[in-house]
């Protein structure tokens, strides 16, 4: 009887260690990277966004997609263009900026692709 209990205890300890290691794997951040995008935050003003567009389009990122005729020109607003620029900058410099916010849903629309 003592031998059976001993084996049972060892089995339970083994199973608890396996279960604990599985939980650890599931909760460790960045093990399965989720796709993320950086877009204009709700609190960003048009002035802040225009300032960022001017900064980023001055040689930091490729802004041809938000120029007239570009696939991300519409909507032709600081928020629309700012979101595209924030994400393009985020892709290169890994910085979402204080006027941006990280999202987990692809903001692409129509022919405008956020990559």
From TrEMBL:
Keywords: Signal. The keyword DNA-binding does not apply. SMART domains: X8. GO terms for cellular component: plasmodesma. Residues 36-114 form the X8 domain. Residues 1-20 form the signal peptide. This is X8 domain-containing protein. It comes from Daucus carota subsp. sativus. The lineage of its organism: Eukaryota, Viridiplantae, Streptophyta, Embryophyta, Tracheophyta.
């Amino acid at each position: 009887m003592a031998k059976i209990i001993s084996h049972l205890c060892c089995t339970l300890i083994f199973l608890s260690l396996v279960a604990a290691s599985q939980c650890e794997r599931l909760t460790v951040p960045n093990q399965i990277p989720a796709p993320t995008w950086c877009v204009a935050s709700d609190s960003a003003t048009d002035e802040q966004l225009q300032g960022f567009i001017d900064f980023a389009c001055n040689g930091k990122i490729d802004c041809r997609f938000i120029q007239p005729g570009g696939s991300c020109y519409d909507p032709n607003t600081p928020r629309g263009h700012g979101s595209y620029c924030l994400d393009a900058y985020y892709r290169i410099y890994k910085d979402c900026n204080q006027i941006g916010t990280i999202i987990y849903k692809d903001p692409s629309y129509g022919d405008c692709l956020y990559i």
